[in-house]
Amino acid sequence: MAAPVLQAEIDINAPVSKVWELVSDLRKMPQWSPQCRLMKPIGQLRPGARTINFNRRGFLFWPTSCRITEVIPEKKLAFQVAENHTVWSYELEPTEAGTRLTETRHAENGTTAVSAFLVDKFMGGTTTFEQELIEGMNASLTRIKSAAES
């Protein structure tokens, strides 16, 4: 079953280069994301590179790994989560005042059966979890905006 595309965007009063610097340093992901506690890149930021991640939601902790799927400097960064096949991306677009940053979670081919089971049993079900993800995306973008504008 295909999952919906989840998306959030924000306008930032900072140049694209500054926003890219923040977004493309994956080690900073825990500063932005309410759920990510660690994102450790293995090697250079390039397609095919991997990351090791640790996530937390309340009392739940779980590891994931990602493969970088797209790197277009100052335009787009995307990575696929191995455990559930979702693709997360950040897209940057210049605006008159600075940068529009869009965060998206793609799951057009659905998620894995294991992921769906865990979300259903431990994360309050798909609807609740996806709403929480959108809230987390908005929180992440707000934190990136704050850092870029300071």
Automatic annotation (TrEMBL):
Entry's InterPro entries? Polyketide_cyclase/dehydratase (IPR019587), START-like_dom_sf (IPR023393)
Q: Name one Pfam family in it.
A: Polyketide_cyc2
Q: Which domain of life is it from?
A: Bacteria
Fetch the CDD domains from UniProt: SRPBCC
Any idea what this protein is called? SRPBCC family protein
**Species annotation:** Mycolicibacterium austroafricanum
